[in-house]
Amino acid sequence: MTRSILAGIGLIPLFAGAVMAADLPVKAPAAKVSPAYSWTGCYAGLHFGSLWTQSDWGALGSDDDAGGLLVGGQLGCNYQVSNWVFGLQGDAAWSDGSGTHSDPSGSGLTDEWKTNSLASVTGRFGYAWGRLLSYGKAGEAWKHSKYDVGFAAKSDWNNGWTVGGGFEYAVTNNFSMLFEYNYYDFGSRTVGLAAGPGVPEMADIHDRSSVVKVGANYKFNW
What we know:
Elements: H1 2-23, E1 41-56, E2 64-81, E3 84-102, E4 110-129, E5 132-148, E6 153-170, E7 175-196, E8 199-220
Antiparallel strand pairs: 1-2, 1-8, 2-3, 3-4, 4-5, 5-6, 6-7, 7-8
């Protein structure tokens, strides 16, 4: 009997320890923390939008405004330091922008101009709030145009500059969507045309364009 009592007393500490252990809170497994999104990497994408161009023909006509569509693509690379994002981008697009005015020579002809394509190489500088990137851009631009005064047509490339900016949002780790505005200025240049057969006509043309576009990029992670 005495042995049984002593044995029972000896089990009390073990039982108490088990009860206290049962009352202790169970530590939940550590939640997985997703790594912060990084804009570092190279990308390729497509865009489309609207083009508005003002073309000043100097003495041959007043300023003309015209619009058109724009479809193209872009390639670039970004590098992120803290929240700041630095990048370089090249893009090219086809356009159907065009405009007309009556030739002031009295010939009854209609002068027509077309913007066939735009291209640029720009540096980008932005600030990222996680998956949202706000950025500005500036650089060199090129435009292919065609001018037609009835008797003669001329097409050429000319260069200028561009500035712009926009927003880009990373929908997934590799896919993002963007909204962007760009302004282009191609300066003044003299274009040799013809008012009629054998009648030379020189036009001092100054083209300026605005582009609003939306697009999507696919990022190749480093």
